[in-house]
Structure to design on (183 residues):
């Protein structure tokens, strides 16, 4: 009896280990992650609006039709990136993802406290090259360090009513992400 119970316990433990390792390995093994799906649709270092999702045409999983979305696929090898995003009337958020779809920074319009979300995205090496006095004098300049040179920036804006969706899309169309000229 005890022996059978030990075998059952060992099988449950082994099954848990296999399950956990499979779940943890899945993002590395996925071939059609969000970045891969957006490569043919988005140029590098440019903000592109994402079409309204339907059950058959959603580019990324869990897209809410009440939100208008725009995506910037960035590559920081040519320099740091400047993101300018006007906020909508209801709610606007900006989320930064690595190449492997790991979110590493997010900000919304309430945290930004302005009518425009303005960020500088750079690698730690590029941030180290920023002169210290420039960092001090621009106290309101928000610098985000990217863990890698490639990734995604997803901009989302809420349309509280379907009739407001064109206005929200217009606000997202004014968003830009571009490489900053070297000074």
């Amino acid at each position: 009896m005890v022996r059978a119970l030990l075998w059952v316990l060992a099988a449950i433990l082994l099954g848990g280990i296999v399950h956990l390792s499979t779940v943890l390995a899945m993002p590395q093994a996925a071939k059609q992650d969000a970045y891969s799906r957006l490569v043919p649709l988005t140029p590098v270092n440019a903000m592109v609006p994402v079409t309204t999702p339907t059950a058959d045409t959603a580019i990324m999983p869990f897209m809410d039709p009440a939100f208008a979305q725009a995506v910037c696929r960035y590559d920081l090898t040519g320099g740091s990136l400047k993101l300018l995003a006007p906020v909508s009337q209801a709610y606007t958020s900006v989320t930064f993802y690595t190449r492997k779809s790991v979110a590493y920074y997010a900000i919304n319009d309430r945290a930004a406290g302005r009518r425009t979300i303005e960020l500088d995205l750079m690698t730690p090496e590029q941030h180290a090259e920023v002169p210290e006095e420039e960092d001090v004098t621009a106290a309101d300049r928000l610098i985000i360090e990217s863990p890698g040179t490639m990734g995604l920036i997803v901009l989302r804006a809420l349309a509280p009513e379907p009739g407001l969706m064109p206005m929200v899309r217009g606000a997202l169309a004014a968003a830009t992400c571009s490489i900053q000229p070297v000074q």
About this structure: The longest strand covers residues 67-75. The helical segments are 2-29, 34-38, 109-112, 124-128, 132-137, 165-173.
